[in-house]
């Protein structure tokens, strides 16, 4: 069980383009990952999440700050001394070794005896359903099987920390779901502190105990998946977490579309964006809309059926938003519809800084 | 169909062009003395193996073969060992100024050997290494190392970065990464370099001629060139000897051909 602390960890790379100076891949990251926790760094590409992981792994050395494992400083230690294991996006299996030798590789390096190695490989292969594949070479495996071998190789020596860098990105959609639950299952069984990196917010939400949303090398918000979804501290987090993505409307448009909102917004400054989750807005039955004074009319541009839900893309004064369309309604694209929502569900962000405005 | 025929015709023409000298060599080596200088016949009327036996039993060719083999093997092994270490560092260890090193190495290999031969002669003499195999191994290595480093660097660069990172996380030291991951994965590059360096040192003539005095260090190209001919050039023996020394190289290429075929990295990473 390992607790990991990052305090003010930064990483700068010298830029290829001299005039641009150095590139800040990670800026003053401070976060504590509790022992036995599944923690995820999530963010768009180039946000520094992989750098954060490599810093924890010891594959990159921090330019500044301190990294502690269970209180002891490992900032300058090599990966070997940190006793971490890692799964890579490309699986990174050794092409010249059989599956058995791939999995046994970390043990062999540590001088574990042959009999014990065989026993350990056998056990882990059984958990991951690899027993029949041990003699094959990586190139004879499917993507999902390679992923399992990579997991087995990382798990076999029961590392202090288990690191995963976008491990599911190369799999097709169905296999991704399957391996996602597999990863969660293994985590629950092994109880090893796990740090996961992904650009897929859904993966982060489903897998993690806690997650950190990253942007431009900094942690934008850190918390449980539900905290980041229900209580985003910035417009960036609100937009990044949640699918379909949150609706963002300029304050004036929002007040016109939802007159009831105006009262709530009166206390706010003018440069404000109003945000509401698509699940919290629904289209109402045109036959009822005459009696409804909740909203102005918006134009239904597009219908999106996903099977379990139906989403409408609506246009109001050049602003686009999504709303849930109840299954029993039959309306067509091009219709003028009114919407229903609870003004309390709105969140407000400064349109200049993107910071949350909680005044209302 | 016609397209394929045309392709094969073209291939046959190229093959003929490339193999003609070798074929002529073979024909000459089995022609009896009397037919050597006359044309026709193109093909020998009374083929004979006499030149081969003469070369094997009455010349210093066997000794020269042994010398050549020793020089080639030592040069190749040395070049590959040092070259692999250097190439690994240049390709994978984020050396500051790696590009500069590579440029410097390349510029060294631009020197024509003939320009360096007088200073080299002085150095070798001063070291008391004239007419030794060691001198040739040392000199050949200096000329083949830049080549080895360059080829190996480009092959090692192609080893996926994530594989190196995986090895590092799994607990490998730099040397273990080289021996357990980069070398096995870069085997085609190693095989290609092996063959090129081996052929270079097997064929090298200028340095060998300059630094070997007796049969103690005389290699095959020099030995053949110095075949004793009392009144005329012994074309039959020269051809037979040339055929004999071509065999090891041909065998080597056949053995390593399979290893050179790429695709060894298939399956390590997605792609």
Describe the structure.
The complex is a heterodimer of chains A (360) and B (271). Chain A has helices at 49-57, 79-82, 99-109, 114-127, 143-155, 173-190, 201-207, 225-230, 235-240, 251-257, 261-265, and strands at 4-14, 22-33, 38-42, 64-69, 72-73, 84-87, 161-165, 193-198, 210-215, 218-223, 247-250, 272-276, 282-283, 298-305, 310-316, 319-324, 336-337, 339-340, 347-350. The longest helix of chain A has 18 residues, at 173-190. With 360 residues, chain A is an alpha+beta fold. Chain A is built from eleven helices and 19 strands. Chain B is an all-alpha fold and 271 residues long. Chain B has a domain at 69-218: Orthogonal Bundle (MetI-like fold), CATH 1.10.3720.10. Chain B is built from twelve helices and no strands. Chain B has helices at 2-29, 50-58, 61-92, 98-109, 113-126, 133-157, 161-170, 174-185, 187-203, 206-211, 220-225, 235-260. The longest helix of chain B has 32 residues, at 61-92. Chain B is globular. Residues 263-268 of chain B have low confidence and may be disordered. Classes of the chains: A alpha+beta (360), B mainly alpha (271). The A-B interface holds A 57-59, 78-80, 84-86, 88-96, 105-106, 109-110, 137-141, 143, 146, 153, 163, 170 and B 160, 162-163, 165-173, 176, 180-181, 184-185, 187, 264-271.
In short:
The complex is a heterodimer of chains A (360) and B (271). Chain A is α+β, with helices and mostly antiparallel strands and 360 residues long.
Total discrete domains of chain A = 2
User: Class by helix and strand content of chain B?
Assistant: mainly alpha
Assembly type: heterodimer
CATH superfamily of the domain at 69-218 in chain B: MetI-like
**Structural category of chain A:** alpha+beta
């Amino acid at each position: 069980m390992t607790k990991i602390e990052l305090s003010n960890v930064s990483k700068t790379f010298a830029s290829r383009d001299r005039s641009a100076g150095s590139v800040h891949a990670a800026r003053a990251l401070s976060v504590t990952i509790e022992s036995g926790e599944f923690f995820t760094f999530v963010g768009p590409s180039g946000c520094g999440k992989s750098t954060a992981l490599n810093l924890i792994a010891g594959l990159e050395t921090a330019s500044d700050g301190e990294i502690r494992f269970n209180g002891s400083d490992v900032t300058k230690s090599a990966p070997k001394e940190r006793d971490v294991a890692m799964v890579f996006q490309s699986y990174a299996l050794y092409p010249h070794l059989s599956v058995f030798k791939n999995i046994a590789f970390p043990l062999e390096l540590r001088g574990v005896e042959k009999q014990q190695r065989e026993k350990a490989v056998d056990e882990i292969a059984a958990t991951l359903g690899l027993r029949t594949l041990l003699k094959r070479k990586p190139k004879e495996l499917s993507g999902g099987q390679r992923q399992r071998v990579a997991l087995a190789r990382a798990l076999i020596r029961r590392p202090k920390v288990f690191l995963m860098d976008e491990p599911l990105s190369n799999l097709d959609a169905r296999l991704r779901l399957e391996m996602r639950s597999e990863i969660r299952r293994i985590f629950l069984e092994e109880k090893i502190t796990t740090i996961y990196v992904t650009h897929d917010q859904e993966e982060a939400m489903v897998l993690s105990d806690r997650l950190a949303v990253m942007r431009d090398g900094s942690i934008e918000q850190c918390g449980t998946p539900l905290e980041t979804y229900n209580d985003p501290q910035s417009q960036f987090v609100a937009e990044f977490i949640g699918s379909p993505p949150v609706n963002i409307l300029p304050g004036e448009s929002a007040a016109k579309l939802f007159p009831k909102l105006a009262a709530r917004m009166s206390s706010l400054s003018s440069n404000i964006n109003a945000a509401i989750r698509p699940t919290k807005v629904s289209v109402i039955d045109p036959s009822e809309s005459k009696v409804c004074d909740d909203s102005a009319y918006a134009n239904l541009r597009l219908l999106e059926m996903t099977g379990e839900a139906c989403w409408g893309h609506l246009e109001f004064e050049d602003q686009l938003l999504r709303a849930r369309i109840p299954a029993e309604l039959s309306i067509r694209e091009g219709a003028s519809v009114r919407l229903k929502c609870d003004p309390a569900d709105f969140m407000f962000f400064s349109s200049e800084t993107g910071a949350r405005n909680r005044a209302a | 169909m016609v397209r394929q025929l045309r392709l094969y015709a073209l291939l046959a023409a190229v093959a003929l062009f490339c193999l003609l000298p070798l074929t002529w060599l073979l024909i000459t080596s089995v022609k009896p003395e009397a037919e050597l200088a006359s044309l026709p016949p193109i093909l020998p009327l009374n083929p004979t193996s006499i030149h081969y036996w003469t070369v094997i039993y009455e010349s210093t060719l066997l000794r020269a073969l042994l010398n050549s083999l020793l020089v080639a093997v030592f040069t190749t092994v040395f070049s590959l060992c040092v070259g692999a270490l250097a190439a690994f560092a240049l390709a994978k260890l984020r050396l500051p100024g790696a590009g500069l090193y590579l440029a410097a190495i390349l510029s060294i290999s631009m020197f024509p050997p003939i320009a360096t031969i007088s200073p080299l002669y002085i150095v070798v003499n001063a070291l008391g290494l004239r007419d030794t195999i060691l001198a040739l191994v040392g000199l050949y290595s200096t000329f083949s190392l830049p080549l080895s480093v360059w080829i190996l660097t480009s092959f090692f660069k192609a080893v996926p970065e994530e594989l190196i990172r995986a090895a590092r996380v799994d607990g490998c030291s730099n040397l273990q990464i080289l021996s357990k991951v980069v070398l096995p994965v870069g085997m085609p590059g190693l095989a290609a370099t092996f063959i090129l360096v081996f052929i270079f040192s097997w064929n090298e003539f200028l340095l060998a001629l300059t630094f070997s005095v007796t049969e103690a260090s005389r290699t095959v190209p020099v030995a053949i060139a110095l075949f004793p001919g009392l009144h005329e050039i012994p074309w039959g023996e020269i051809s037979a000897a040339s055929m004999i020394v071509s065999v090891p190289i041909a065998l080597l290429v056949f053995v390593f051909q399979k290893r050179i075929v790429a695709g060894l990295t298939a399956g390590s990473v997605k792609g």
